């Protein structure tokens, strides 16, 4: 009869755990190997999804010349920067715009306060 430990051994060996660590090491190590395996799977899944997104985007950009009823028969250029960099640029621009807006608001408040100070102190 095979024990649960014997059944699980090949799985943990496939995750990179050594034979000695599995049978003689700290039992909590298997939890960390399981967690790492799940993170690796999520990372690989995200990378595959992102690759599909790039392929999909490239196909859409290249499609206009091949579409019969397309108004433009020129292919759109491929993206100049990766999605992550594009997202970071947009966030930076949004932050800078907010800082500019905040700076303008502070300048207006200071100008109003200065105007009131001039009125109180005779100009």
Please count the helical segments.
Answer: 4
Total domain units: 2
Structural class: mainly alpha
What fraction of residues sit in β-strands? under 5%
Q: What is the typical, i.e. mean, pLDDT? A: 91
Helix content range of the residues, please? over 70%
SSE string, helices as H and strands as E = HHHH
Largest sheet: none
Global outline: flat
Unreliable stretches, pLDDT < 50, 5 or more residues?
Answer: none
Please give the structural blueprint:
Layout: H1 4-14, H2 19-24, H3 29-62, H4 83-120
Overview of the structural elements:
This protein is an all-alpha fold. The chain has two domains: 73 residues; 44 residues. Helices cover 72% and strands 0% of the residues. The chain is flat and about 100 Å long.
Notable features of this structure?
123 residues, mainly alpha, 4 helices, flat
Short description:
The chain has 123 residues and is an all-alpha fold. It has helices spanning 4-14, 19-24, 29-62, 83-120.
